[in-house]
Amino acid sequence: MWRQVEDKFYDPDYHGLDWDKIRADYEPKVSAVSNNRDFARLMEEMLGELNASHTGMYYFGGNPSKDDSTAALGAILEASSQGGLTIAEVLPGGPLDKDGLDVEASQRIVAIDGERIDGANSAWQFLNRKAGDRLRLTVTNGGRERDITVRTYSRGQEGNLLYERWIERRRAIVEERSGGRIGYLHIRSMSDQGFRQTFSELMGINFDKEAVVIDTRFNGGGWLHDDLVQLFDGERYFDLRPRGRRVRGAPEERWAKPSIVVMNEGNYSNAHMFPYAYQLLGLGKLVGMPVPGTATAVWWETQMTGDMYFGIPQLPVLDQEGEPLENQTLMPDIMVDNPPEAALAGDDKPLEAAVDALLEELDAE
């Protein structure tokens, strides 16, 4: 690992670090390590000395078939003082959202496969390693109990349902606050699928909007910045108006209306590069919180044991002065935080600020 970093790390000065001395400092500690999990943690400390993104060592050993993994029911559940779990919300498209089940909020799950959920029995033990299995749930509404059969989801599948729920709520905030004038889309990842989804929503449900909010929060990166810059850098050069009604215009495959980017501390890697380029080229304003400078490309190397890998930031992205964007914090034009109490109440302060800024821009035209 030390040799790989010495050979490939993007900064030959190792961010001012004496990399030979780091090896001398850490090598004696290796003899005290008896397993790869602890070795990975030790090497993560060593790599952390570089003060760089896209690195760290990760252990992925174990036996996934025997590891604990709680199945999901596609619902937001709360512990009930009456015993069992109260269904606070059924997630659309999940295991409980099926024709004929008639499961609604406020109902309770009181048993799983005949095992009662009470003070002595936690529901989660009956869901362990059951993702994808068919389970019998005993549901009660009032005093009457009935059994239903569902096929459970994995936590990843339920995570996608929660993501869609989050998106629909963001879209509703923008729709209501703008009076239907402004559209909304979220770029989940800087990938082929991320671009396809962005293009589809931009030229689909948002085609007739006067402007669009581009939400990049919690985007973990990829390599899409140039495609996105071109997509949002359109300039209208003619309209099509059959009988006085505008139906389309040109460009047809680029956005030629106002836009704004929302970002936060969760933007990473290419999700730092895109808003940086968006601001630099004057495409619109950035709203939200500062984004850490993590604009490098990484090489992931698997250790020869096969159960550990680590990252080497190998390709720097340089600004127009030739300085790496790595560790350069990107500041928003409009800084707005969304504190926990606001999020808990269902508010989204950065998103609201982005809508207000776009409305001001539209009304000034």
Mean pLDDT across the residues is 95
The arrangement of helices and strands along the chain is HHHEEEEEEEHEHEHEEEHEEEEHH
Shape: flat
Strand proportion: 15-25%
Largest sheet report? 6 strands, antiparallel
Tell me the Rg in angstroms. 25 Å
Helical residue percent band = 25-40%
CA-to-CA gap between the ends? Answer: 57 Å
Number of helical segments with 4 or more residues: 9
Contiguous uncertain segments of 5+ residues: none
Structural class: alpha/beta
Oligomeric organization of the protein chains: single chain
Number-wise, the strands total: 16
What does this structure look like?
The protein is α/β, with parallel strands linked by helices and 365 residues long. The protein is built from nine helices and 16 strands. The chain has helices at residues 2-8, 19-26, 36-48, 155-178, 192-202, 225-231, 270-280, 340-344, 349-364; strands spanning 56-59, 75-79, 85-90, 108-112, 115-116, 134-141, 144-151, 182-186, 211-215, 238-240, 248-250, 259-263, 286-288, 296-302, 308-316, 334-335. The strands form four sheets. Strands 2, 3, 4, 5, 6 and 7 form a six-stranded antiparallel sheet that branches. It has a five-stranded parallel sheet with strand order 8-9-12-13-16, sandwiched between helices. A three-stranded antiparallel sheet has the order 1-15-14. Strand 4 and strand 5 (115-116) form a beta hairpin. Helix 4 runs parallel beside helix 9. The chain is flat, with a radius of gyration of 25 Å.
Task: For this entry, give a set of tags.
365 residues; alpha/beta; six-stranded antiparallel β-sheet; 9 helices; 22% strand
